[in-house]
Amino acid sequence: MDLKEKLIILSDSAKYDASCSSSGSTRKNDKDGIGSAAACGICHSFASDGRCISLLKILMTNCCIFDCKYCINRRSNDVKRAIFTPEEICEITINFYKRNYIEGLFLSSGIIKSPDYTMEKLIETVYLLRNKYHFNGYIHCKAIPGASESLLKKLASLVDRISANIEMPTENGLKLLAPDKDTNKIDKIMKTVKENRNRNFAPAGQSTQMIIGASKETDLDILSKSSSLYNTYNLKRVFYSAYVPVNSDKLLPSIKMPPLVRENRLYQADWLLRYYNFKVNDLLDSNNPNFNILLDPKTDWALRHLEEYPKEINKASYYDLLRVPGIGPTSAKKIVSSRKYFTITFDDLKKMNVSLKKAKYFILCNGKYFAENKSLRKETITTSLLLENKESTDGLKQLSLFE
Amino acid sequence: MRNVYLYDGSFSSLLYLVVTLLHSSLTPADIKSYEEYQANLLDNAISIKLIEDEIIYKSYLNKLSSKVMHIVYYVYLSSNERKELVIYYFIKNALKYKDEIIYRRNLNCVNEALKLSKYVGSENHKFKGFLRFKELDNGLYYAEVTPNNNIISLLAIHFKDRLRNESFLIKDKKRNIYALKDESKIYYLNDKDIEKLNINLSDNEKDIEELWKTFFKTIAIKERKNKKAQMNFMPKRYWKDMIEMEEEYENSDKR
Ligand code: SF4
To answer: What global pTM score does this model have?
Structure first.
């Protein structure tokens, strides 16, 4: 099998992992080395599905002794299998890196022979890349659940980021769809990484991924899981990957298209947890366990709390500003640092590049509201937001097409 | 008559000119480099004699924080035709408001300076990702870019650190200028310095490009196809210098 065919098989089977980021590490180049890591992450291209390409995302092999229901590489599937040698992976990585196609390598693998054996092979590859090829660029590697702790530590000391995918938000979900996997083993990896993390041990931290829409869990289940992962293991990111129906199985939902709008809502809510000081309970509860498909979670929240609005831009606290739809940390910081020096008007907000599309319904600038009538009703705002907001009308179209 | 002050286009002489104007209480209607200036009947084009005393420059420029100087430098790299005037007013106000200046977005010059410098910064960031090198048969790594702003020096510094053992040449096709990195030095050249550039690809270059194009196609999930998002993040103007997009660029209407 030639290199090109291997690359097709082993990138095709790696593409469902949503992780792409190359941020959070500031690995420096050394004298004879090649590469460095940029703290803010760099996108090198965008695929035709609109996703960023930052890393060479491949599997070492798509052979696997496990049989996870949702996975294209599962043992029981009749697909072409391939294995990269460590040298092949290094050569492609270095050649791509020198031409500035990529920021580094994202290496994952199906499980061959045993978790330990697979892990040893991954370590061999990454070791070679770091020490023979003197590669100082970004490496993200998957840890294989069930491999020994000493191997995990060895791998983590060579890479920038390490991750183990939780896949399903509840233990039952995982038992049902990934009978060979075990939540405890994944927890163990996360715990070890958290306890040992430092400059030379997974400096860019760890991340994980959940598949959305392959099992019955609600958005509340998913987001609660994320929140507890962030708190317990200091994860850098939880990625959400809308389930792409690759297999048919009576345990899997029969959908034709991945639930992209839902995935997007979860990402938005995830940001609200990490950067906007929101708690899961602010957004969802058992009476209301799934996100509104038509409105983003923050706008939805604000509309349910209209009594708190409009907020005066020149007085509201930083955290109150963050809760205004359309205002993010960058805008909120600009507002707070500027208003010491002058009174902010609607015009000034425009100059500061603060998007008013959503925000205008929820703010006052120096006592002024954007419209004559200061107490707009919920229905009025919702309707105008839906009409103005391309994103939700696109969402509507997708809905009617796919669900 | 409009008083238009001329300078040689370099960053240092722009700074010296701005200080000279401020020190002599002269208000420019515009500031232009010799190269870009087009004579005009309404203008009074002036090549002013710059102040010679270093101490005077220091007394102005040392008052500007590194944050402010960073913004000034990035505005200088911008392709905006008002950039020199923006710099003049920005520096003038920075001397008055000190570091507070960057929060005073209600002042037009501050707002414009921040926008231009942000644009230069974000274009630089984009090209750090989108620039593509090709390996030539003499071992040189060669890239062509067409940036809106004059960011070749920023790019050269970025890649110098990454590709320590390689020599590379980056060409800005819009300005016909080059950055050559050899050993640990960067040289800036123009068409006159480069008599003839032989672009002969190394033996396995085509194979590697083919591998990359293959990867690029395979990694997209077809059930998630979203050309609009792709175009949003990576507008068409970058495509012609990107190996994986060349073909699509050729087949598209090239607006
Ligand atoms: S362990 Fe499960 S998810 Fe991973 S490759 Fe094997 S079958 Fe797929």
So the answer is: 0.92
